[in-house]
């Protein structure tokens, strides 16, 4: 009789009916949306505040240089000393005081301008002020040299290099950022899924082992089927919880946004405003480029391969977690075995972020996208940059073949370890179990 479907059903129902599983399924989205709503609300309140900067320009060259923005208001001071200006700014609790002294030559401005404030000012605010002063000072220097600064500006050429493949497909630097973001999110999601639900499988094995229930079960079921049943059943429970999170997050986010009137875009409104002042592209052009790059992504290929690598990677690591659970008597004894499992995942993430972005088709990226313990992360990061289908299929074949081998390896540990009590397993002991 094939007991595998029964084991899968038992594991799945045990997990989804568990009170802590049900509570976390509903509580996690509520906490996440609550944190998001709080941050968005606080950012919205922060953006509604207009910071006032007083400007004391003793040189008289920058009086009309600073214009008000949505988040900054500039007050020009005149006929006051620096000491009086500092006292006035501090007592009135203004954002800060920009002091521009009168100097003998233009070059002295580079080290004589001071910004006084109670606390460290925003980097973006300072960057915006410095850029305006720098442009003005450079214009003054050119005029002193008898050179028309406006003519120089007209002669300057802004270079926006177009990116295109040899087959005529247009790309852009924004596309590379988008591809890396997708790959990074996919890799990180897999990493978290493995840690959360891999530990769930390991704890399940330890609980059954310590309660001696496993002795009854193993009398009628082969260890490898019991192992596969646990892995698949827990995986289905994890997928069910993940889908529930996605649905609940979508519903709760919409409800919170509508009820409390929170604008998510307000979280980065002021930063975007500052960045727009120093960008060669306006927001419409950036949005248009972003939409074009999204449309150019191989969406179908990304979704299909994400599912396959996600499933393959999770099954591979789950079998190792189950083997660890069978080898120990308590969760505290698992620490010595966790590092060898987590290390390949961590290496995969580091390789993905530090090599794929630099050269997605380089030797290092390709090698690690074939190694089964790192391929689920690295290959997912490479696919958005255009990986030949044969490479993807080869990587998948190696991954699932390794999973089959790992299940066999884990089952040999499992069949001995689940009946071992009162003795802490060591690597030497586990090597003996493999020979039985």
Outline of the structure:
This protein has 436 residues and is mostly helical.
Helices and strands, with pairings:
Blueprint: H1 4-16, H2 19-48, E1 51-57, E2 72-77, H3 82-91, E3 96-100, H4 109-112, E4 114-116, H5 123-144, H6 149-155, E5 163-164, E6 170-171, H7 173-210, H8 213-217, H9 223-260, H10 269-277, H11 283-296, H12 299-327, H13 335-356, H14 363-368, H15 375-382, H16 389-417, H17 427-433
Parallel strand pairs: 1-2, 1-3
Antiparallel strand pairs: 3-4, 5-6
Helix pairs in contact: 1-9, 2-9, 5-10, 7-9, 7-12, 7-13, 7-15, 9-12, 9-16, 12-15, 12-16, 13-15
Quickly list its features.
two-stranded antiparallel ribbon; D-Maltodextrin-Binding Protein, domain 2; elongated; single chain; 2 domains
As a percent range, the share of strand residues is 5-15%
Helix content: 55-70%
Low-pLDDT residue spans: 266-281
What is the helix tally? Answer: 17
- How many β-strand runs? 6
Radius of gyration: 31 Å
Largest sheet: 4 strands, mixed
Given helix and strand content, the structural type is mainly alpha
Q: Tell me the count of domains.
A: 2
* Strand neighbour order, sheet with most strands: 2-1-3-4
Task: Choose one word for the global shape.
Answer: elongated
Please provide the ordered H/E string of secondary-structure elements: HHEEHEHEHHEEHHHHHHHHHHH
Which whole number gives the mean pLDDT?
Answer: 77
Q: Oligomeric state of the chains?
A: single chain
How far apart the termini lie comes to: 25 Å
């Amino acid at each position: 009789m094939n007991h595998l479907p029964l084991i899968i059903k038992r594991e799945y129902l045990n997990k989804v009916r568990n009170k802590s599983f049900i509570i976390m399924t509903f509580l996690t989205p509520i906490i996440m949306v609550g944190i998001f709503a709080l941050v968005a609300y606080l950012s919205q309140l922060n953006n509604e505040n207009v910071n006032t900067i007083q400007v004391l320009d003793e040189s008289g060259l920058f009086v009309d240089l600073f214009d008000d923005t949505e988040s900054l208001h500039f007050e020009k001071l005149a006929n006051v000393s620096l000491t009086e200006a500092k006292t006035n700014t501090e007592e009135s609790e203004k954002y800060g005081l920009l002091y521009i002294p009168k100097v003998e030559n233009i070059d002295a401005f580079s080290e004589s301008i001071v910004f006084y404030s109670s606390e460290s000012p925003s980097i973006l605010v300072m960057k915006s002020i410095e850029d305006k002063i720098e442009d003005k000072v450079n214009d003054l220097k050119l005029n002193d040299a008898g050179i028309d600064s406006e003519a120089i500006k007209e002669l300057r050429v802004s270079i926006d290099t177009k990116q295109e493949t040899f087959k005529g497909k247009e790309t852009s630097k924004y596309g590379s950022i988008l591809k890396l973001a997708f790959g990074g999110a996919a890799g990180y999601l897999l990493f978290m899924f493995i840690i959360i639900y891999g530990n769930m499988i390991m704890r399940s094995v330890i609980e059954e082992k310590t309660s001696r229930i496993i002795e009854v079960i193993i009398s009628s079921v082969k260890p490898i089927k019991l192992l596969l049943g646990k892995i698949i059943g827990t995986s289905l429970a994890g997928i069910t919880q993940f889908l529930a999170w996605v649905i609940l997050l979508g519903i709760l986010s919409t409800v919170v946004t509508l009820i409390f009137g929170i604008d998510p875009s307000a979280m980065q409104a002021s930063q975007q405003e500052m960045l727009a002042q120093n960008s060669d592209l306006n927001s419409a052009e950036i949005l248009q480029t972003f939409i074009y790059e999204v449309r150019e992504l191989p969406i179908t290929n990304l979704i299909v391969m994400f599912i396959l690598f996600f499933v393959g990677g999770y099954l591979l690591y789950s079998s190792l977690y189950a083997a660890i659970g069978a080898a120990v008597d308590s969760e505290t004894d698992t620490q010595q075995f966790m590092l060898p499992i987590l290390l390949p995942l961590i290496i995969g993430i580091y390789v993905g972020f530090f090599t794929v972005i630099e050269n997605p088709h380089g030797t290092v990226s390709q090698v690690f996208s074939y190694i089964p313990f790192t391929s689920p992360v690295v290959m997912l990061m490479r696919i958005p940059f255009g990986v030949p289908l044969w490479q993807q299929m080869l990587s998948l074949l190696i991954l699932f073949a390794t999973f089959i081998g790992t299940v066999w390896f884990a089952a040999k540990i499992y069949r001995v370890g689940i009946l071992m009590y009162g003795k802490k397993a060591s690597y030497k002991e586990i090597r003996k179990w493999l020979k039985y």
